[in-house]
Amino acid sequence: MDELKQEPVALSLATLDQLPEGIARPGYDRADLTPGIVHIGLGNFHRAHQAWYLHRLMQEGQALDWAIIGAGVRAGDARMRDSLLAQDCLTTLIELDPAGISGEVVGSMVDFLSVEEDNAALIAAMSDPRIRIVSLTVTEGGYFRDATGALDSMHPDIQHDMAHPDTPRTAFGAMVAALRNRKRAGHAPFAGQSCDNLQGNGTILRQTLVGLAMGSDPDLARWIDEYASFPNSMVDCIVPATGEAERRRARALGIEDAVPVTHENFRQWVIEDAFCQGRPDWDRVGATFTREVHSYEAMKIRMLNAGHQVLANAGEILGLPTIAACMADPQIAPFFRKVQMVEIAPHVAAVPGMTPEAYLDLITRRFANPEIHDTTRRVAFDGSSRHAGFVLPILREALASGAPISGLALTEALWARMCHGTREDGSMIEANDPMWSGLQTTADFAREEPAAWLRQTQIYGDLSRHESFAAAFERWLSRIWEGGTRAAVKEYIEQV
Questions:
Q1: How many domains does the chain have?
Q2: What is the distance between the alpha carbons of residues 205 and 382, in angstroms, rounded to a whole number?
Q3: Residues 442, 456: Cα–Cα separation, whole Å
């Protein structure tokens, strides 16, 4: 009779020594850790990326005074808080390497603040001089920028935070309130570290905080601008959302974890070394400190992030469930490669040790990893921010230089078709953008009048005035509605 399989061990500090052999776990005593970082927007990516780099340092006996306190400003963050506190803020990371799956428990996070409407607990934590870095992942569209890239000072949440600086609604308002407390107490400011996929993310974070502070306290705004620091960075690791399938993977490894994280077998973190209150030596465990962050950012955002949009919108329309499925498709994969080689890579400079062509080969392998169940829905989420931030800057540069734009125009037409809200098999695409209602209404109009889509100036600005782009977009959207996505993609692939 076969021996009964051991029941999964419920993850906690008390059960670490009961975990199955082969599961890496913290070699440091959590009692020795003290906090140095508050991270806002604590989701899967942070736990697989920044928290992992810090954990690796702690495994070497380093950075024990840089432990992470988690935080959130949305009601949904409270669920993550409850789950993590129940397991002592430990996380199971599951690496999905096609050659073999492995598990590791990360312990660099030591607490999760209560999620409150007025953000009082968050403000108090960031006011503590022990906190020297406040980092955040709030998505590309979460920085309250208008169509020109400036702070959207008319947004109701920004208006509220300017009028009520002691009881802010936003993460940025809470950061400004904490910096005000530190200034009044004679403490140095913390460094603000964006970990979002924005080119110049530190610069954008500075703009947001200084602009917000200027609305209520100009002296504080000038103090932040002069004494705080906001390092730019590039972050990269494919981290799918967690659902029951991911929890089953953890159980298969012998761990009961309510919120495990699966990730690919690749990480990259390129950081500008500009921290006003010091920082962990992340470069000891694989991060890169450099003055040339912009070049790394441009390569990653233009080729990987824009490339994701090339794939995901077509995949959603065709009912392809994952990015790996898109890469296995005999038409979508060649479409992706042609757009990259002809229309994206020519606008990307090489970085030390990596040409755009080699980087394309790298992300092609990563996207095709069959173990990574990264859904097209997740990648297509918030297209109004992702197209504006990832695809349209390439398009503008191509138009300015007279370079090809047909595939980029087709990418935009596919997004417009996706926002109609139905797949080609008739199934419904659920709301997948903060602007979904308006996008869907406009997509309906654009079915008969394609130019209506480009008149969304909050996304496209003046791009509708570029005749070559407008004509290409209108032709592709009409072609998609008349003959289907595959016919349009086939036509593009066969273009000379």
A1: 2
A2: 19
A3: 8
Q: Which of 245, 263, 291 is the last residue of a domain?
A: 291
Please give the model's pTM, rounded to 2 decimal places.
0.89
For residue 394, the one-letter residue type is I
My answer on whether 215 and 238 are in the same domain is yes
The sign of the dihedral angle between the CA atoms of 381, 46, 233, 308 is negative
Nearest to 262 by CA among 378, 109, 382, 111: 378
Q: 40 - beta bridge partners?
A: 71, 136
Query: Which residues lie closer than 8 Å to 301 by C-beta, 6 or more apart?
Result: 197, 198, 199, 234, 389, 390
Q: Which of 2-16, 119-133, 234-248 has the lowest mean pLDDT?
A: 2-16
Exposure b/e, 224-263, CB count within 10 A at least 16 = b:
beeebbbbbbbbbbbbbbbeeebbebbeebbbbbbbbbbb
Please report where in the chains the tokens 């600086």 appear, as a residue. 165
Q: How far apart, in Å, are the Cα atoms of 157 and each of 167, 184, 256, 403, 430? A: 11, 25, 39, 40, 26
Q: Are residues 284 and 302 in the same domain?
A: no
With beta carbons less than 8 A apart as the criterion, state whether 182 and 190 touch: yes
Same domain, 46 and 118: yes
What CA–CA distance (Å, rounded) separates 483 from 477? 10
Residues 180 and 315 in one domain: no
Please state the φ and ψ torsions of residue 81, each to the nearest 5 degrees. Answer: -60, -50
Per DSSP (E only), the strands in 41-90 are 67-71
Asked whether residue 253 falls in the same domain as residue 274, the answer is: yes
Residue for token pair 């109701």: 156
pLDDT tens digits, one per residue of 56-104: 999 999 999 999 999 999 888 999 999 999 999 999 999 999 888 999 9
Alpha carbon distance 352, 447 (integer Å):
45
Q: Rounded to an integer, what distance in angstroms lies between the CA atom of residue 188 and that of residue 176?
A: 13
- How far is the C-alpha of 18 from the C-alpha of 367, rounded, in Å? 35
82 DSSP assignment = H
Neighbouring C-alpha atoms within 13 Å toward the C-beta of 193: 29
Q: At what angle do helices 467-483 and 406-418 cross, to 10 degrees?
A: 50
Residues 160-216 pLDDT 10s: 999 999 999 999 999 999 999 999 999 999 999 999 988 899 999 999 999 999 999
3-class secondary structure for 382-436? Answer: CHHHHHHHHHHHHHHHHHHHCCCCHHHHHHHHHHHHHCCCECCCCCECCCCCCCH
CA 57 vs CA 65, 84, 149, 161, 385: distances in Å: 11, 21, 36, 37, 34
Give the tens place of pLDDT for each residue, 203-259.
999 999 999 999 999 999 999 999 999 999 999 999 999 999 999 999 999 999 999
Beta strand 261-263 pairing with 255-256? unpaired
